[in-house]
């Protein structure tokens, strides 16, 4: 069974590449940092054990200094590794995103302007990572 990356906008799975996948940590404080950095609200109510058992992040979301290759066949994370590399903007350029479809359905320039303003307000107030 392939592992899928739990990061938003990441479509990597273990059967497509030789990229390493890492389980969420069982340590509650460290696991919480992983969830916060992923910015996936649906993971916030899961326990560290549930996250560890069912969710993975691929190596693309970690700084190279956080990854140790112990052999050609084994890759591990440092004990303090926290994922910090995420593509949180790809939905803005996707012509099939729900937001773009909704704007197209609205049609009028006034409504389009309102929709653009509300989207801008959301984009200008991201939460800092870490």
Automatic annotation (TrEMBL):
The keyword GTP-binding does not apply. It comes from the Eukaryota. Keywords: DNA-binding, Metal-binding, Zinc, Zinc-finger. The keyword Translocase does not apply. It comes from Phyllostomus discolor (pale spear-nosed bat). InterPro entries: IFN-induced_PKR_regulator (IPR052958), THAP_Znf (IPR006612). This is 52 kDa repressor of the inhibitor of the protein kinase isoform X3. It holds the Pfam family THAP. Residues 1-86 form the THAP-type domain. The gene is THAP12. GO terms for molecular function: DNA binding; zinc ion binding.
